[in-house]
Write a structure and sequence with these properties.
Strand content: under 5%
Order of helices and strands: HHHHHHHHHHHHHHHHHHHHEHEHHEHEE
Oligomer: single chain
Largest sheet: 5 strands, mixed
Shape: globular
Helix content: 55-70%
Structural class: mainly alpha
Number of helices: 24
Length: 500
């Protein structure tokens, strides 16, 4: 049996490597990473989150990126990506262990192939944002809950980990309520609930002390509560509903394994009761995604482990109830499952997935040199003209310039100028700005005596060159009166230098 487990693990590791290395190990693995790393670079140099560095989420994601920038300074992206890859592997191990307590090992062993199933849904987006880290915390919390709920210390640790989820996004409150319900149903003891809540309290009070000691309460409230609420209000309810259903349909309809074995388990009353904890976590994870009100697949990444586990349990039940003595039918069914997974992999990764590997190796996309080559003109210009202490501002979504050149931003809007340009996600031709953020932006430019403003809208990472200076009269006035535009265009960037 041990040899079988080892072979399965090796096979899953190989498949994970084949499917995920070209995505994860590019120097910047997704569109959000340049912003996170640029912000982390400033935090590692002593800047304060929210006051000096804009972020609309909790501190969790920035703490992780800052850790790798600070302690793996020579190549932080590579070591972060190793960590992300190991999370995929460890998540599959946690899924196997959780399932192993529920169903026989010859079925729970399918859990090792979780990274394969994860690549069957927008693989390029599954490693974007904090969700990959949150999914690891949730699975670890669920594993501890499943195996060690009888010990007070582990209940406290479950609470502590649940509190950590809250530090990534406020929607973490959903998981706190979820584990609170599960602990109560399992133990029926208020004493253990109080232990769970004390673990959450430790996490939250530690962060609250950090905010108080650094005088960040106002900035934290402004950017992580008021601003996200404002953005949410710009998206009509009908749009949020419209965004939700395509995500759900793509998770299910393009992977028949979930439809055939997962859905029946959810809607069958008897099975719902037996697998309540899995189904509750799946529903909570869907609510996490839907709460964003945006059509970003990575918001739904956390739900994949739970529908995956539910489907494996359903697959086991189906085999036990209908196919126990029908070996030929079993073979046909297994072939069908393998074929359905293959078609899903091909749909999301393409028939020409091998070209991604060729491009990854040929162009050495894991290297810093690959990224710097794309922006060599603007980086060389700034390195020659930006002296120690000089500040620059990147207008447009291309914070790579900050990180690759190790330049200091003249405003807090490092990872993104979204609050300033007032991007509306469902209609990029609209502008709805948050409060007096334009005045804040201008005030910081003047206060910090920004030397260069780089207009990078034409090379925006998300391909939205709409938000040019002429859409913002106050900013355009400052640029025209206090800066001069250089005649040369560098890598599509216009450069404005402060008039001495």
């Amino acid at each position: 049996m041990k040899n079988k487990f080892l072979k399965i693990f090796i096979l899953s590791f190989v498949l994970t490597s084949i499917l995920w290395i070209p995505y994860i190990f590019c120097y910047f693995s997704n569109v959000d990473e340049p912003g996170y790393f640029s912000s982390a670079l400033h935090l590692a140099k002593g800047k304060l989150l929210y006051k000096d560095v804009f972020e609309a989420k909790g501190p969790g994601i920035m703490f992780i990126f800052t850790f790798f920038v600070k302690f793996f300074y020579k190549n932080p992206t590579f070591f972060l990506h190793i960590f992300m890859f190991l999370i995929l592997i460890f998540n599959s191990f946690l899924i196997f262990k959780i399932l192993n307590k529920k169903i026989p090992s010859n079925f729970s062993i399918i859990g090792f192939f979780f990274p394969v199933f994860l690549s069957c849904f927008y693989p390029v987006d599954m490693i974007t944002g904090p969700e990959i880290f949150v999914s690891f915390i949730i699975l670890l919390t669920f594993f501890i809950f499943f195996y060690f709920l009888d010990k007070k210390l582990t209940i406290f640790f479950v609470g502590f980990l649940s509190g950590l989820i809250l530090l990534f996004k406020p929607f973490g409150i959903l998981y706190i309520l979820c584990f609170l319900i599960l602990i109560f149903l399992e133990t029926k003891r208020f004493g253990k609930i109080s232990i769970f809540l004390s673990g959450i309290f430790l996490t939250c009070i530690s962060f609250l002390l950090y905010l108080c000691l650094n005088n960040l309460i106002y900035d934290f409230h402004l950017w992580t509560i008021e601003y996200p609420v404002f953005v949410s209000k710009t998206i009509p309810l009908i749009k949020k509903i419209y965004f939700f259903f395509p995500m759900i349909s793509r998770i299910f309809l393009l992977n028949p394994f979930y439809i055939i074995f997962g859905l029946p388990l959810i809607f069958k009353k008897e099975e719902f009761k037996k697998n309540f904890e899995f189904i509750l976590l799946f529903i909570i994870s869907l609510l996490w995604g839907a709460s964003h009100g945006l059509a970003f697949p990575h918001h739904y990444m956390i739900s994949i482990p739970f529908i995956f586990m539910i489907s494996i349990i359903g697959f086991y039940k189906f085999n036990e109830e209908f196919l126990k003595n029908y070996f030929k039918v079993k073979k046909v069914l297994n072939l069908f499952i393998i074929f359905s997974i293959l078609q899903s992999l091909i749909y999301w990764n393409g028939f020409d997935f091998y070209k991604k590997w060729i491009s990854f190796i040929k162009e050495k996309k894991w290297t810093r040199q690959y990224e710097e080559k794309q922006l060599s003109e603007i980086l060389n210009f700034l390195r020659e003209n930006v002296k120690n202490g000089d500040k620059i501002v990147i207008w447009g979504l291309n914070p790579k310039i900050y990180f690759l050149g190790e330049f200091i931003s003249g405003t807090r809007f490092i990872s993104s100028v979204e609050p300033v340009n007032g991007i509306v996600y469902y209609d990029v031709s609209k502008i709805i700005q948050f409060k007096k953020v334009e005045e804040i932006f201008i005030e910081e430019i003047k206060k910090k005596d920004v030397k260069f403003i780089i207009d990078a809208t034409e090379i925006s990472l998300i391909g939205i060159p709409y938000y040019t200076f002429d859409k913002y009269p106050l900013i355009e006035k400052v640029v025209n009166e206090e800066y001069e535009q250089l005649t040369r265009i560098y890598n599509g960037c216009k450069i404005y230098r402060r008039i001495l």
